[in-house]
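Q: My labmate handed me this sequence with no annotations at all. I'd like to see what the chain might look like in three dimensions before we decide whether it's worth expressing. Could you predict it?
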Amino acid sequence: MDYEGLIIRPPSEAQSLLLQVTVGCSHNQCAFCGTYRQKKFKIKPAQRIEEDLREAATYGRIERVFLCDGDAIIIPHPRLIEILNMINAHLPGLDRIGSYGNVKSILKKSVEELKELRKCGLKIIYLGVETGNAEILEKIKKGATRERMIEAARRVKEAGIELSVTVILGIGGVEKSIEHAMDTAGLLSAMDPDYVGALTLMFVPGTPMYEDYMSGRFVLPDKIGFIRELYLMIAHSNFSDCYFASNHASNYVPIRARLPRQKDKVVQKLGAIVEAGDTSSMRPEYLRGL
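A: Here is what I predict for the chain of 290 residues:
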């Protein structure tokens, strides 16, 4: 397989074939993210993608494919359809194809175009929203507003594609911790995704947020502060049917829950940790990572 630079994927795509159809991220300005800073965004040539698929076809049964890099949904619609058809031709019988997306790229697609992508096998989109607070969104240079995030979610869900969103604990620092948690709960409720993944902010050298942290301009919440944010997000969110997880390696307390069915149990557990101020059950620092 032809991979250019560092390749990342969601935890739930651990068993998927990672097919790099773009290099880098079409936005690549988020203040906390250093993943694609050394890559200039481009769409890989169809010939190179097909060569990778020919190789993958020799691996045996493949059930899932994940489209790398940071935002394959930005590929112009006719070309993306061509890529999906190529995948299906070389790897028949796939259960699903998944991809990262951002708000801009999703909103470049109509609902009908998204439905066409769904028919070609694209069954899940991963969208990083990070926060529901308008001030923080602007500060971290997310390139999207709450309103546009909600519209992007509506289109994905109307098209019958599963939506998995990511939020980041601590992204507002101590100063905006409570506002971040409450506004994010409101945004998640409005988007009503199928999955939510909560990560905990970890700084990447060379990013603007790292520089702010090192200079003292940005102060992280303490461990209990992170858990308080998670508690508030879950307690004040309302979902139709959502699998909520904070089992990423960056998190102090792993949560896996089907909401709203298990909401009371999770809220009680997190509330007890916050009230007691007890960090003894949390993941130790040496086991945390990106």
